[in-house]
Amino acid sequence: MVDAAADAGLDAIGFTDHCGVDGARREERLLWNRNFDRTYERRREALAVAANRAPELTVYDGVEMDYAPAAATAIESFLEAAGFDYAIGSVHYVDGRHAFPFESFADEDDAARDAFVDAYYDAVVSLAESDLFDVLGHVDLIEDHPALRGRTTDAHRRRVAAACAETGTVPEINAGRTGDRGEFDDLHPASPFVETFRDHGVRFVVGTDAHDPGDFTGRLDRLDRFLATTGIEPLPLSAVVGESSSA
């Protein structure tokens, strides 16, 4: 990943492995030894070795935390102890239920789907208001789900944007769902959400959400085109490093 980032001409790369300290999938992560809250120090040593491969590249040691309001105290304790360069907060689960397309809502009516979307954005607002994180990750994740897509309302967008403006939590423009995705080929967040953030004076960081070295090139091109078209000047990652209590 470091070699690919350097080859792509990046100035910096941030590693933000997924981490959950409570709630959904905790037992699964323990079972498969993917509990990053127990292993981050070993990765930190590896990052130091990897950084030597590309001295022209700044390598940041970050984390992407699963957020749930009930876990806020545990998350705060972990982030303060771990001392990452920066922390991304993301909502993947609502009341233990996954927001990704893997779980079907096909048998549920519109009221149940709308209730899930409301609860999702309640959690996103809580995330921003917790002031635990430097960056708000893929804010409209539920737009990836075919049964939930299009249910995000202007009221949802305004609530999230107001919370970010109040706390200084910085949303990311995330290229993780771009590519050959059909109707889902879009950035996080989609354009209406971007404009609502801008109306509230909220700035952005940008990220490829690369999970493989081959992800950088196409996603960087997509982000560059989007920024050129919209005239958005994103914050450099260095501007958010150290801003939260976790760094």
The gist of it:
The chain is an alpha/beta fold and 247 residues long.
Count up the helices: 9
Q: How many domains make up the 3D coordinates?
A: 1
Series of secondary-structure elements, N-terminal to C-terminal? HEHHEHEEEHEHEHEHH
Q: What's the CATH first level?
A: Alpha Beta
CATH architectural type:
Alpha-Beta Barrel
Principal-axis shape: globular
The N- to C-terminal Cα distance equals 23 Å
**What is the CATH homology-level superfamily?**
Metal-dependent hydrolases
| Gyration radius from CA atoms, angstroms | 18 Å
Q: What fraction of residues sit in β-strands?
A: 5-15%
CATH topology: TIM Barrel
- The helix/strand class is alpha/beta
Largest sheet: 6 strands, parallel
Structure, explained:
With about 250 residues, this protein is an alpha/beta fold. The chain has a single domain (about 15-25, about 65-240), classed as Alpha-Beta Barrel (TIM Barrel). The protein has nine helices and eight strands. It has helices at about 1-5, 25-30, 35-50, 70-80, 110-130, 155-165, 190-200, 215-230, 235-240; strands at about 10-20, 60-65, 85-90, 95, 95-100, 135, 170-175, 205. The protein has a six-stranded parallel sheet. It starts with a helix and ends in a 7-residue tail after the last helix.
Features:
single chain, 247 residues, alpha/beta, TIM Barrel, six-stranded parallel beta sheet, two-stranded antiparallel sheet, 9 helices, 41% helix, 15% strand, globular
Helices, strands, pairings?
Elements: H1 2-7, E1 12-19, H2 26-31, H3 36-51, E2 58-66, H4 72-82, E3 86-90, E4 93-94, E5 97-98, H5 110-130, E6 135-136, H6 154-167, E7 170-174, H7 191-199, E8 205-207, H8 216-230, H9 237-240
Parallel strand pairs: 1-2, 2-3, 3-6, 6-7, 7-8
Antiparallel strand pairs: 4-5
Helix pairs in contact: 5-6, 6-7
